[in-house]
Design brief:
It contains 5 helices and no strands. By secondary structure, it is mainly α. The chain has one domain. The relative contact order is 0.14.
């Protein structure tokens, strides 16, 4: 079973309640995998199941607190260190 089939299986069995229980970084990883899958399989027909799953993941992420990226986290750490001195 390839990676594409794994995404389809996860999309088929995952409910909104299950997504709401997942950690934000895990949801971001799923969203990234869905996006890279679309970029890789651009010649395939769009898969409605994966489209719906992607929209569901995005709706759950919209309710979550922002997670800083690498540069934002670095700036936050530097400011925190300056305040300690």
């Amino acid at each position: 079973m390839g990676y594409y089939e794994n995404l389809r299986e996860k999309a088929r069995i995952t409910r909104l309640e299950d997504l709401e229980k997942m950690h934000t970084r895990e949801l971001l990883g799923i969203l990234q995998a869905l996006r890279s899958n679309y970029n890789y399989n651009w010649w395939d027909e769009r898969d409605e199941l994966l489209d719906d799953f992607k929209n569901l993941v995005k709706s759950v992420l919209a309710t979550r607190e922002h997670i800083p990226n690498k540069l934002e986290a670095k700036k936050i750490r530097q400011e925190k260190a300056k305040r300690k001195k």
